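Structure catalogue
Derive tokens from sequence
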Amino acid sequence: MNAPMTIRYSRDTEVVQRLRPEPPSAREARAMEGLNDLEYEIFTHKLHMIALEGKETTMKLGASTAMRWGDVAFGIYTAQGDLAVCATGIYHHAVLSQLPVKYLVKHLAHDPTVGLKEGDAFFYNDPFYGGVHNADMGLCIPVFSGGELVCFIGAAVHTGECGGSEPGGMVNGAKSRYDEGLMCPPIKIGENFALKEDLLGLLATATRDPRTMVLDIKARLAAARIAERRLHDYLAEIGPDFLVGGLRRILKQTGEAARARIATLNDGIYRQPRFMDTTGPESALLKINLTIEKKGDRIKLILNGSSPMLHDRPVNTYFQGLLGMAMVYVCGWLMPDLPANNGLLEAVDWEFPENSFINPNGDVPVSYAPATMVAFSQGMFMAGAKLAYATDPSRAAGAWYTGFAVTVFGGFNQWGEPMADITPEINATGAGGRPGMDGVDVAGAFFATMSDCGDVETTEAERPFLYTFRNFFDNSYGHGKYRGGSGVGMGIKVHGVPMVALGSMGFGSHFPATLGIFGGRAAPPAFVQTVRGSNLDALMAEGVPLPRTMAELYAGTPEEGQRDYLNLAHAPALFQGGDTFYVPISGGAGYGDVLQRDPEAVARDVAMGRCAASAAQDIYAVAINPRTGLADPAETDALRTARRKARLARAKPYDAFVAEWAQQSPPEAVLRYYGPWQDAAA
């Protein structure tokens, strides 16, 4: 007969609250006392190198788009499950991936039907514990020394297919979590240093792309075993006491350093509401009402007044996922010199309203949660810029593009193999403007800063697509004293197969996804363009000149067929061989007043094609000499003087502005999921 059960066959709402480090055990406290400072510094470097090798190995062995191009977090956890050492550029996993490990420590390690011993491996992807969505999957292994559990090693990676009712890991039409595919709390997938073939078969059968699913699992495990061997070699030198004490000391020092850094910032309340223009399958306005309260050595994230829970729409997100995305900003911009681990949360408190779409309960769908998370993260950028500016202006940067624009696909590739995944261009967005500098063009993805978008040839070799172009999406950024970086635009043609399913996930087709700071402009709204029954093959055969950029596409194209313009969020649909699909992955936010931009910088952008000549005139008020291509100082000064006078002419007292503005409201249909419009807290 089984021992008394700790699992209730339902979600554990207690373990997901344990985001901060566990209290030190007596074993850890004793082990910390005797650490030599010099040897400890060597230890931290050594463990980071082990984790970094694990991350790179995972990327080299995996099959999914995200795994190969860097959506990987590889870590070393304490025996209690806290993530102490993490090699990643996708920082939300640095404060989320400990939850599945803590779950298995709590529920499985001492259960006689499961247990925990050397050679085991555990798999998981339930978003309630991982904090994101079903496509983010993880694997961890326990590490023993002399029969004692001393740590865990694990890898968290986005695998492109999880068997939902739509391909590609993100289900636009999900009405409950049961539409979203595989949802697995930690299970023992391996014993005695071998994976269990029966469970591999189950997981493979649960997805449209079994080859990728299995290869990604094996990649995580192989990398973890390599790191385990490296760790055992090092344990032979330092002993288990040093490892146990060293991991705990890393977490302790991280928490202390985070609180000390927060203490240097000005106390205050920083508000930044953020808006989304989609629920997934339809356009509507939603609100993430972010307030950051900073006092002493702590910050508190307050989300009261956010939109209600959506019972049958997939943009809901668990609160723990938003905390993870808050750490993306903290790790990448506010405290980039501190270790990325959940010790950072020692400086953070939070308050999330119950039954809101950023803290739902029950069986609501969450497969579009990444979109909601990145919308929230832009609020972190904007409020964080105000928080950091007085003490360290270099940290007050505009947001990278946060609208996603993820192309999802499913079907069979040109080799007859089943496939379902996303394209890698999600990792090709523009960075935000920053103090003294423009944003970087096609910088990557702010949530996965070490990731890459791959090369066209690799994608074409494995997927049934022919790129018609992929290059800078000029004018896709927010204008400002320092402009955002350009994103990338791409066109793909279904090629080598009779048909394939194509869709998109994102937001920002009606309300801008990426707003500027300190007077900077937003990146413009974006949309997907498709052409069914395209004559592109015939045009290519005839050598007819075709658009080579998004700007040329928008200016006009000889391509004919059924042309549609779609929101960034739309469900996958079948496209025939020869049909085309055009996607903008946009640019970063603007920083500062456009009338303060260096006229010569505007002229250079026009010469390079980054900025339209009309934008130079209409937005920046810069006159460019058509013969030399240089800015005309006198004419520019006159234009800007007139523009400033026009601003003053339409100005009004603040109270008058508020009185007029407060009377405005979107149409009722747009607000059907929003919550109270007139409520001051809304």
The chain has a mean pLDDT of 95.
